[in-house]
Amino acid sequence: MRVLFATFGARNHVHAQVALAWALRVAGHEVCMASHPDLGDVIARTGLTAVPVGRELNEDQVMEELREREDAARDTYDEEAPDAQLLLTMDELRPEKLTYDHMHGVFTAMTSAVFQNYSSTEMIDDLVDFARGWRPDLVVWDPLTFAGAVAARVTGAAHARLMFGLDLVGRMRESYLAEVRGRPAALREDPMREWLGWVMERYGGAFTEDLVTGQWTIDPVPTSLRLPVGLPYVPVRCVAYNGRGSIPPWLREVPERPRVCLTLGVSHREVMGGDQASIGELIDAVAGLDVEVVATLNARQLRAVTSLPGNVRTVDFVPMDALLPSCSAVISHGGSGTVHTAFLYGVPQILVPGTMWDNGIRADLVERSGTGLRLDAETLTAAALRDALARVLTEPSFVAGADRLRRETLATPSPRDIVPVLESLTAEHRRPGATRHNAPARNDV
């Protein structure tokens, strides 16, 4: 069968799709990956075929527009919001806060400021045009790239979301639709239905809820940490892909002291333009400790550091799946790639999450699981981080918690293992008669 992956122009979102894409490719299926032109080279370096669609996603321009719309959204929908980002976050889980007015404001702001930027009219048109010619059997789309669902619906392909983290959209969507159903028919407004319904009308179709949450969802989050959402999920083990890299000589040696990885990921430094945790406080916290610290920080991030302690080694980049197996602990921003890789290798964690997407909720879940500790980025002090690190390195409960998550992760089907499941679901959901008719005969599954 032919499988089309679709994501928006962020490198870590591409990386989240590579392992499954290659599992399908190795199983004999035809695979290509569509994204904004900015990511063409990134995709090509994975060995997959890149399909540029839409215009370049200028992140500086997008972030400036987001800041402008944050203020407008707050003024329009929640004048008492404590900060301008309230309605551009979907990480509210408290039932008493999930009122219709709040969720309607969130979906209105997110649809106009985020979803329509990541799936612009140009991107949707280009992706649909490619899909009409290539005729995929299955479209696998990033949960923020609704263009993938549209292209699947127009061409009759089956389609599924591939999560990069927690299912915030599915969780809030479930609560929101329950509130909408309780309102008078004339007041059942739905920003996503309006937008995606308008998009589908352009192609002679109509809105259905699978355009928002997929026909099913492929989920790398350990089942014990998944948010409670009543949608069909296919669990898959998160297999790290960090891009091209090499193992430096020092990493081949067994560390003489406990090794600690300190990383803030690439999302904030590449997409958001900065880090939310104080790098100076992070470095001060580990100074003088009887540990070897490997800090994955680039030159810009290190400008704020006047001097490096002798026990700190800085590297711009090293693959997490090569580094973490040698570590006794990891200090991070709570990004999904880092956290899931730590699960895979049973490494206790200290999370200092910022406000990006689901990092805060993920940090809470990690702490509740007994796998690590959470600290607040805005009030972080070197003393608090030093104390947390001492606990994680010396208290056996954190090693035991990390081992439980490692065993759960290893027991989850690998990307290769779920290929037959995807083949079966594709045959079930693909619209009969909508696949290729005049294409050359091939040995499709």
From TrEMBL:
Start and end residues of each stretch annotated as Disordered:
426-445
Where do the Erythromycin biosynthesis protein CIII-like C-terminal domain residues begin and end? Answer: 281-425
User: Which superkingdom, per the lineage?
Assistant: Bacteria
The record's section on CDD domains has:
GT1_Gtf-like
From which source organism is this entry?
Streptomyces halobius
Q: Does the keyword Glycosyltransferase apply?
A: yes
Q: Which UniProt keywords apply?
A: Antibiotic biosynthesis, Glycosyltransferase, Transferase
Instruction: Using the record's annotation, list all stretches that form the Erythromycin biosynthesis protein CIII-like N-terminal domain.
Output: 22-265
InterPro entries named in the record: EryCIII-like_C, EryCIII-like_N, Glycosyl_450act, Glycosyltransferase_28, UDP_glucos_trans
Which SUPFAM superfamilies does the record match to this protein?
A: UDP-Glycosyltransferase/glycogen phosphorylase
Taxonomic lineage per UniProt?
Bacteria, Bacillati, Actinomycetota, Actinomycetes, Kitasatosporales
Entry's family note: Belongs to the glycosyltransferase 28 family.
Q: What is this protein called?
A: Activator-dependent family glycosyltransferase
